[in-house]
Task: inverse folding
């Protein structure tokens, strides 16, 4: 009965999202999630309670342009669930290693899994950042990959939801990447970080234009500074929009095909999970998007490092 009710709710949501006005009021088509089902039941059997919850969440400042304040709050709840689950998993593995060290060189399955993950990230991101830099930034970029991957996969679990299908959530992660990238560059060498904006300009002697070369160099410095400022602002926007667009498209696809589960009439019909093949596509898409987000973050870190140290790192790697 629960499966039938969920299928009917998914069908109603997809049908209501067909028009522009309905899309604004009901939101995008998506598979039902646990908190959404609870809220839907409250709207049907206790509308006053549902309105009070929506008003309170709106008062807290949660907003969703493509849904209600409660849909924005859902993303925070599922993001917290992922954080708690990952923290409990890795912390328990750490505690086992600390209080019960491996005997005869054998690790527990949880510790072995964690070791494999860290070794893979160390080798993969080390090809981009260099083996000296990767040890400094692996806790950040590696955590980004694991967290985004789990958030993406959460949308494929029954009654789950992917927080990464929300633009505000992705903008928050992209803002963290922006702050980390530029704080790393400034803390490493403030002067070298500032030199990144005008870039490597030619000297007056190399231009061979005499006093006119000074004006040309000044113009080039201003132009390159504006370009690099725009680059710094565009990078987090592109990170968030890419992840949001792919995850939202996956949710819409699953929601539309999930709404077609009913074959026949509502009284006599068969429910067939047409969306099942797209779950496997979602697995691949979620892994690729997590990899792209963390990979681009590592590239941005290396791009914004001071030029002198960046060249030294490449020189050490080639030697």
Result:
């Amino acid at each position: 009965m629960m499966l039938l009710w969920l299928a009917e709710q998914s069908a109603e949501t997809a049908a209501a999202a067909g028009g522009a006005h309905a899309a604004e009021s009901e939101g995008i088509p998506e598979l039902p999630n646990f908190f959404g089902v609870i809220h839907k039941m409250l709207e049907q059997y206790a509308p006053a309670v549902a309105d009070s919850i929506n008003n309170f969440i709106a008062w807290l400042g949660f907003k969703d342009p493509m849904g209600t304040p409660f849909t924005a709050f859902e993303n925070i709840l599922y993001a917290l669930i992922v954080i708690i689950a990952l923290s409990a998993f890795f912390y328990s593995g750490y505690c086992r290693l600390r209080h019960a060290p491996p005997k005869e060189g054998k690790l527990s399955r949880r510790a072995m899994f964690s070791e494999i993950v860290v070794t893979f990230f160390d080798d993969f991101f080390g090809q981009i950042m260099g083996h000296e830099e990767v040890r400094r930034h692996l806790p950040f970029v590696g955590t980004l990959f694991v967290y985004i991957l789990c958030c993406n996969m959460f949308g494929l679990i029954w009654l789950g939801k992917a927080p990464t299908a929300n633009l505000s959530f992705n903008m928050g992660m992209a803002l963290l990447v922006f702050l980390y990238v530029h704080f790393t560059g400034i803390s490493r060498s403030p002067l070298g970080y500032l030199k990144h904006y005008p870039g490597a300009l030619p000297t007056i002697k190399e231009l061979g234009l005499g006093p006119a070369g000074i004006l040309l160099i000044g113009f080039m410095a201003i132009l390159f500074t504006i370009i690099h400022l725009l680059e710094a602002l565009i990078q987090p926007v592109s990170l968030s929009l890419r992840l949001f667009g792919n995850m939202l498209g996956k949710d819409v696809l699953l929601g539309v095909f999930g709404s077609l589960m009913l074959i026949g009439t509502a009284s006599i019909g068969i429910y067939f999970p047409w969306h099942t093949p797209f779950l496997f596509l979602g697995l691949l898409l979620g892994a690729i998007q997590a990899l792209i987000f963390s990979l681009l973050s590592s590239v941005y870190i290396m791009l914004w490092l001071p030029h002198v140290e960046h060249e030294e790192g490449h020189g050490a790697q080639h030697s």
About this structure: Residues 246 and 285 are 8 Å apart (CA to CA). Strands lie at 262-264, 269-271. The chain has 13 helices and two strands. Residues 212-258 form the longest helix (47 residues).
